[in-house]
């Protein structure tokens, strides 16, 4: 069972000889899955002594099983579906610290066989054992078999690679801000997309990353520091309350908006959870998404915005985009996102095919939706005419403290890993 594996990996029974297996299970369940420890005295103190180790083992187990919530571990038959088992393990190379070639060489030295760049999604299905490919669409994405466990790998623990689903990499990739840009990540936690934006910007520019939850912000700060991100200001604030006319955002030209959604595209989501999503809840989410998208478009210098969800529902995707485009008239237009991507938006309105979708069956990813919007040139009669680019602004970024693991090179060298480590491989 999950509890037995946690006890074994944390070596709790070996460390506490007077603790019986049954009592240990009760303590661990209350500590990690329940509403807190109900006991007191020495048993409560004992559980707290081992809390950090147990939580670390719990985090590793969630990574291995590709689940995000503790309760999903207790019902693996529901959480780990056939769809989840066919989605590969995607690894984004963090170009703030290393480069693709060096990471490939590192894995080859670890006994993995590199098969080159995949020609199609079909090749990804055939991956097995210790083999990996370069993704056919995203140049900094490596693809491993589904059950590959890299959470203890040196490249991951040092921030040189990011474990991130391919679909989740699409928003920052399609936003594509140039170095020096000012960018908003409106709903940023846990921070993988933020670190991706920083890599695209080459740490040259300014990112404003918003989230309303203090714990998520603290986690994101740790992640961004490990990834070597600088020039990112974390703001604990509801993005809907941010004043677009605030002078500090006067140079924001790009916004990544990935708001709260139903999560129906997550392959670890069980059918019971999806069935429990009421029509009222779905409409409430869609209403929130329309408001926050419209709010994002009100930033005066905005030129390009990416709206994304991990939802399969038209109400949260095409319907939201259509409603907001109608609200803004000819001020913004849909851009065809990734023309070579085969899975397009539902035919909910004229032009919806410019959006893209992702799914386990068609793209071997989590279910996802992405729309790219651009401001039209002021006064243009034809709304298909985009705003012309403006010169890249110059900016001296304010740095977040950056982690530099010993021997792994600094974030200032984009291809430093091999040079620092080749002799020890």
TrEMBL record:
Main localization, broad class: nucleus
Region (Disordered): 383-425
Biological process according to GO: cerebral cortex development; cognition; oligodendrocyte development; positive regulation of translation; regulation of myelination; rRNA base methylation
Active site positions: 310 (nucleophile)
Keyword set, alphabetical order: Acetylation, Coiled coil, Methyltransferase, Nucleus, Phosphoprotein, RNA-binding, rRNA processing, S-adenosyl-L-methionine, Transferase
Pfam family of the protein (one): NSUN5_N
GO terms for MF: RNA binding; rRNA (cytosine-C5-)-methyltransferase activity
Residues in SAM-dependent MTase RsmB/NOP-type domain copies: 79-376
Location of this chain's protein in the cell: Nucleus, Nucleolus
Coiled coil regions in record: 44-71
GO cellular component: a single term: nucleoplasm
Chain positions recorded as S-adenosyl-L-methionine binding sites: 187-193, 211, 238, 258
Alphabetized InterPro entries for the sequence: MeTrfase_RsmB-F_NOP2_cat, MeTrfase_RsmB-F_NOP2_dom, NSUN5_7_fdxn-like, NSUN5_RCM1_N, RCMT, SAM-dependent_MTases_sf
Keyword Chloroplast belongs to the record: no
Similarity section: Belongs to the class I-like SAM-binding methyltransferase superfamily. RsmB/NOP family.
Protein name: 28S rRNA (cytosine-C(5))-methyltransferase
